[in-house]
Write a structure and sequence with these properties.
The protein is mainly alpha-helical and 144 residues long. It is built from 6 helices and 2 strands.
Amino acid sequence: MRRGCRPDTGGLSNKNSEPDDLLFFTVMHGMRHKISADAVAAFMAKHGIQARAKCAEVPEHVHPHQLRHTRAIHYYRDGMPLALIAELLGHSSPEITKIYAFADTKMKQEAMEKADQKRNVTPQPTAIWKNDEEMILRLSGLKP
């Protein structure tokens, strides 16, 4: 993985950075080398186990590609067009990028509010179960 920073800066940004400077590296015999895919996988597995011990929502198996997927979803949720995300990820077609283009509840709510503002429509009152996990579970029959 490469990033615009010079190795002698310890990974910090530098105005004189080069596109081919390493972001992640190992040091062998006093020289910096590209980190291996196995080392990245081991790093992710180790820290994934630690994270899962503190938060059950962390998947059982954490993979480096999940970082790429998560960042792409964050770009999409922040409003970046799919065509730009496709270019950033190096996809040959924006169609491939559609895997990242699912709208969560928050995105849908924000889109509806934006549309209501443009049409000068008064938004619907907040549902009584909003932000009430217990009530949602009871209403859906998942909790007595």
